[in-house]
Amino acid sequence: MKSTKFIFTTLNLSKEFLESIFTLASKIEQNLENYSDKCKGKILATLFFEPSTRTMLSFESAMLRLGGSILGFSSAKTSSLAKGETIADTLRMINGYADIAVIRHFLEGVGEIAKKYSSIPVISGGTGTQAHPTQAMLDLYTIKNAFGTIDGLKVALMGDLKYGRTIPSLLYGLAKYENVTVYLVSPKELKIRNHVRQRLKDFNLKFYEIDDVSQIIDELDVLYVTRIQKERFPDQLDYERLKSSYKISPSTLKDTKKSFILLHPLPRVDEITPEVDDLGCAKYFEQAKNGVYVRMAIILKLLGVE
Amino acid sequence: METVKEKKLIVTKIKEGTVIDRIPPGKAMKVLHVLGINENYPYTVALAMRVKSKKMQLKDIVKIKGKMLTPEESQKLSLIAPNAVVNIINDYKVEKKIVLEIPEQVSEIIRCLNPNCVTNNREPVSPIFSVVSKEPLILRCKYCDRLLEGQNLSEQL
Ligand SMILES: [Zn+2]
């Protein structure tokens, strides 16, 4: 098997690969100390052409916990992109400075450029509205930790399914598992895009597009909530009307199964009320912590140091 | 008398060039457009639309003297006239007969419509699409994964 060098999508990641990352992340979680010098002398470059505090900190924490070093930039203004450098040139330059890189960019299709122009492993830290594979992987890891398996689960994704970059990545990841049922809950303006729907059909994933989570809340194992942003609506009245119907409070969750879990990629604004945080089902802070273990596992895997 | 004339025009032989037969009815003008044949083309061009055909009821035919198709032109042609037959004529004889087929992958000739696609942003990569469906024709950008279909696609052909 050819070893994986680039992670820009979950489309082409096999269940075996995902599981190997989760197994390693779990080992790391149980014995963090054992990994503290695995990447000694190695450098991770963080190329954030679009600012993202959380994803960048998570990657930096992962590399530092592995004993490696980091260098990089955040936002295009501080980089030479503002002066017109191509991504291809930035990657070729960084090849001489680092051993592995993570790149966040608003343009879509950056993975193909990395494949063509980078000799070191590169990971997406978020690609336009196209993909956010490591977020999806840490989401899957959190689900797996809660249920022991992902096969057979009923998962609802709710909110902005059109612009949310994690949504396609999470769906393609879920599609690798057996007998998963997915409910896509969103206002009609924010449904998944056609190219994503086509992929789901090709994967034979069982999915239903609905606009009200209360219809299915009692059947769900997982509810994954994403933020609906005001800017997505030309008419602010539509936004105000929808905002409340896509808000999770303890009363929304009163009929859930005992084992039910609630996830959110964070940061949340007001789509989940603070009272929900105290419920046992709220796993979003655990999700954030898991992100570091999963990214440590990914870095180790791509660098071939296990 | 009119029909006899028409028939004669269609069967008039050309010494060298290309005859494209079994074009879906009504698409002949589009075929010429794709091949860059316009009013300034210096040699004989014959076009027949909605001719009776044994195999497909009605078809279009074009004959172009002095024209050889480039690979790009053949590729583009296959998208607007799938299953058309390209006859390469040399010295009044059919030298080669190629049945056009929609390829698995389409490159260079079509642009991705997603403004945020790397292919539209001065990166050193050129557009490549995979064919998701042949009927109706649906393409998928290899870079940003978006689909190109319907009018958005036909406008580019
Ligand atoms: Zn594209």
TrEMBL record, chain A:
User: Keywords on this record?
Assistant: Pyrimidine biosynthesis, Transferase
Q: Where does L-aspartate bind?
A: 83, 165, 227
Its domain of life reads Archaea
Pinpoint the Aspartate/ornithine carbamoyltransferase carbamoyl-P binding domain residues. Answer: 8-144
Entry-linked Pfam families: OTCace (PF00185), OTCace_N (PF02729)
Which chemical reaction does it catalyze?
carbamoyl phosphate + L-aspartate = N-carbamoyl-L-aspartate + phosphate + H(+)
Query: What GO molecular functions are on record for this protein?
Result: amino acid binding; aspartate carbamoyltransferase activity
Known pathway: Pyrimidine metabolism; UMP biosynthesis via de novo pathway; (S)-dihydroorotate from bicarbonate: step 2/3
Domain Aspartate/ornithine carbamoyltransferase Asp/Orn-binding intervals: 151-300
Biological process annotations from GO: 'de novo' pyrimidine nucleobase biosynthetic process; 'de novo' UMP biosynthetic process; amino acid metabolic process
Per the UniProt record, which EC number(s) apply here? 2.1.3.2
- Is the keyword Transferase in the record? yes
Q: Which residues cross the membrane?
A: none
Instruction: Specify which residues bind carbamoyl phosphate according to the UniProt entry for this protein.
Output: 54-55, 104, 132, 135, 266-267
Subunit comment: Heterooligomer of catalytic and regulatory chains.
Q: Which family does it belong to?
A: Belongs to the aspartate/ornithine carbamoyltransferase superfamily. ATCase family.
Q: In UniProt terms, what function does this protein have? A: Catalyzes the condensation of carbamoyl phosphate and aspartate to form carbamoyl aspartate and inorganic phosphate, the committed step in the de novo pyrimidine nucleotide biosynthesis pathway.
Q: Which protein is depicted? A: Aspartate carbamoyltransferase
From what organism does this protein derive? Answer: Candidatus Heimdallarchaeum endolithica
Lineage at the top is: Archaea, Promethearchaeati, Candidatus Heimdallarchaeota, Candidatus Heimdallarchaeia (ex Rinke et al. 2021) (nom. nud.), Candidatus Heimdallarchaeales
Automatic annotation (TrEMBL), chain B:
As cofactor, the record names:
Zn(2+)
Q: Please provide the record's keywords in A-Z order.
A: Metal-binding, Pyrimidine biosynthesis, Transferase, Zinc
Keyword Ubl conjugation (UniProt): no
Q: Where in the numbering of this chain does the Aspartate carbamoyltransferase regulatory subunit C-terminal domain appear?
A: 105-150
**UniProt GO BP:** 'de novo' pyrimidine nucleobase biosynthetic process; pyrimidine nucleotide biosynthetic process
- Domain Aspartate carbamoyltransferase regulatory subunit N-terminal positions: 10-100
Binding, Zn(2+): 112, 117, 141, 144
Q: Which domain of life is it from?
A: Archaea
Q: Name one GO cellular component term.
A: aspartate carbamoyltransferase complex
**A GO molecular-function annotation:** transferase activity
What sections of the sequence does the record tag as coiled-coil? none
Textual note on the cofactor: Binds 1 zinc ion per subunit.
Q: Does the keyword Calcium apply?
A: no
> Which HAMAP family does UniProt cross-reference here?
Asp_carb_tr_reg (MF_00002)
Q: What does this protein do?
A: Involved in allosteric regulation of aspartate carbamoyltransferase.
Task: Please report which protein family the annotation says this sequence is part of.
Answer: Belongs to the PyrI family.
Q: How does it assemble?
A: Contains catalytic and regulatory chains.
The name this protein carries in UniProt is: Aspartate carbamoyltransferase regulatory chain
Q: Which gene encodes it?
A: pyrI
